[in-house]
Specification:
The protein is α+β, with helices and mostly antiparallel strands. It has one domain: Roll (Thiol Ester Dehydrase, Chain A). The protein contains three helices and six strands; from the N terminus they run ββααββββα. The protein has a six-stranded antiparallel beta sheet. A hairpin with a 2-residue loop joins strand 1 and strand 2. The longest helix is centred in the first third of the chain and has 19 residues. The radius of gyration is 17 Å and the shape is globular. The model has no long low-confidence stretch (mean pLDDT 92).
């Protein structure tokens, strides 16, 4: 491989307010029965959310390092509908559905082809370095506003 070509991790695709993130199921993701262990769906969804924010232009690391604050999950609800198995190719679909000055709600679903395997809703709050809620950076609110689900009302 030439030095000019660098491999980068998949970041997914952001289109019409929805972020699609590819995931492959590896042996380490499965449990004794050969299906994806329930907690690993949360890991898949976390990776998708992180890459969605990155693609929106939200630099979480820079905000934390600058002392501005960070996100923390304050609520999560997940419904498991069907299992994923070893070597399945999955897509995590994520969409911002609610936005307030200090928090946002992201709805996510894990799909295998046309089959929805898992669906969830995650609320994240923006916190200062002491752990107290604070307003998200105005530029972030603007970026979220451009991509919020069109059929969702801001809360």
């Amino acid at each position: 491989m030439s030095a000019a070509r660098t491999l980068m991790p998949a970041s997914g695709l952001l289109e019409d307010g929805e972020h699609c993130f590819p995931v492959r199921v590896y042996f380490e993701d499965t449990d004794l029965t050969g299906v994806v262990y329930h907690a690993n769906y949360l890991r898949f969804m976390e990776r998708a959310r992180s890459d969605m924010l990155r693609m929106l232009g939200i630099d979480q690391r820079a905000a934390k390092e600058a002392g501005d604050g960070h996100y923390a999950v304050t609520d999560i609800a997940v419904r498991y509908r069907a299992p994923a198995r070893l070597d399945d190719d999955l897509v995590v679909r994520s969409r911002v559905t609610q936005l307030t000055p200090a928090r946002c709600v992201i709805d996510q679903a894990v799909w295998r082809g046309e089959t929805k395997l898992t669906q969830g809703s995650v609320t994240v709050a923006f916190l200062d370095l002491t752990g107290r809620p604070r307003r998200q950076p105005p530029a972030w609110i603007e970026l979220f506003s451009l991509h919020i689900a069109k059929d969702s009302a801001s809360a």
